Amino acid sequence: MSLSPFNRVLIVGIGLIGSSLALALRKAGLARQIVALDHTPDHVAEALSLGLVDAAGDDPALADGADLVILCVPVGACGKVAAKLAPYLAPGVILTDVGSVKQAVVRDVAPVLPEGVQFIPGHPISGTEYSGPSAGFAELFEGRHCILTPTETADPAAVARLQAAWEAMGSLVTIMSAEHHDRVLAITSHLPHLIAYTIVGTATDLEEHMQQEVIKYSAGGFRDFTRIAASDPIMWRDVFLNNREAVLEMLGRLHEDLGLLARAIRIGDGATLEEKFTTTRAIRRGIIAAKQA
Amino acid sequence: MSLSPFNRVLIVGIGLIGSSLALALRKAGLARQIVALDHTPDHVAEALSLGLVDAAGDDPALADGADLVILCVPVGACGKVAAKLAPYLAPGVILTDVGSVKQAVVRDVAPVLPEGVQFIPGHPISGTEYSGPSAGFAELFEGRHCILTPTETADPAAVARLQAAWEAMGSLVTIMSAEHHDRVLAITSHLPHLIAYTIVGTATDLEEHMQQEVIKYSAGGFRDFTRIAASDPIMWRDVFLNNREAVLEMLGRLHEDLGLLARAIRIGDGATLEEKFTTTRAIRRGIIAAKQA
């Protein structure tokens, strides 16, 4: 569809995703004006000095006149932030977010919004292990998937407009239910992060002299986990607290599978190990074929 | 030290590491002649057609006249291979390997060697998820660590010569005991691989329609695990079977830590999660500072 730019886009939280969105929106000609709301003075100053946005500050009144509002704050903060913005949101404004959990965001945000606001939760499956306004780049969303989970009451025209905006930034958009999103992401994202945090934590607790060697010999596989385990702590705390059931279910399955492999190692059952390690190669081939490697 | 080239280097097993060694040895001028022994006819043909080696085949007599022999086969095969080579090994020849486990290799190889062979176990901490002769490249060992675990009976001159050869290929060499090696690698390499294989296996067992979505949304963290879990199945089967105690001990520690995090998620203890996720960032900074990222 042909896409007229938004008049005023408010980005709430100008970290890695927020700053990337500012750059990508600008690059795609999707916004006449971009403003940022952030309660961290350093972020505000950095966003302004980097020229990411036209205005920035910690006053919710920045939402005044916005026709697109994007919440880029930890999942646990979305409800409170939406409540502060509510008095400034005009009917017809599109309000979306980029959180890694969707049911909890719907639960917290929907009840505090004034009537007429088009609330369309979203989640771009992209990111890096870096944080802050200087970590952003316009290409972050290119070729990556973005999931939208509009409720039944959302205006289809608003959903189509938001979808077109994501597509103009290079994303592949899929629409699904918030419940389904949370289940799929529990295995593709939340569980991998939980495991990575755990294994890096286990290494952190080793005797002092071993720690230096863990760093020295990390190329053996460990370093890939440390990259994931360097992600933003507050963001991930909120993900786990807000997608508890799905994460614990997937963790339960992992537990069982780990028990089977541990037993195979203990009793010297090489056939089981070899078979298991062979089947896992297939998924890698699928990811390479899908150009998501 | 100044390094005179080896007359004839025999590489046993011309896969990723073997082919990279052939290219790196050649590039550094470390070998007058390089020959490969491999029981897979396709590997032999490929090694010859790629010009990796001067001769190749499946006849142990290729070891005749070699002054350096490098075993690049799965850990579980080292003992059998060494026994086949034994009749052709002259006193003074340096025999080393590249296996990810060291105590088991010493246990299996040392008893079958004729007197006078300088057996110096080794382990370059480098690799990719690709396999076979065409996967090799001369720069694989550059800037990476290589561990040597000579026994007390090894001739210091032979150890120094092998160390110098690795350094000429760009490696950073450390000498330690086989027992210590196996403990350090259990946490930096073996446990991460076990976990990656498990989590990818768990995803493989999901309902059919979820599997496609796991691939589609793998950028959320999962894809990093699939890369590790695409490593050679036989090699890794042998690693786990041959470093059982250390791997199961580290797995036990991981289990405890995972239990603590799962409990924090279940009871909604955000403070514990945040604290844990913050400390794990420090190790990543250490790896970046050590130029192993």
Automatic annotation (TrEMBL), chains A, B:
SUPFAM superfamilies: 6-phosphogluconate dehydrogenase C-terminal domain-like, NAD(P)-binding Rossmann-fold domains. The keyword Signal does not apply. InterPro entries: 6-PGluconate_DH-like_C_sf, NAD(P)-bd_dom_sf, PDH_C, PDH_N, Preph/Arog_dehydrog, Prephen_DH. Pathway: Amino-acid biosynthesis; L-tyrosine biosynthesis; (4-hydroxyphenyl)pyruvate from prephenate (NAD(+) route): step 1/1. Its EC number is 1.3.1.12. Belongs to the prephenate/arogenate dehydrogenase family. NCBIfam families: PRK07502.1. This is prephenate dehydrogenase. It comes from Elstera litoralis.
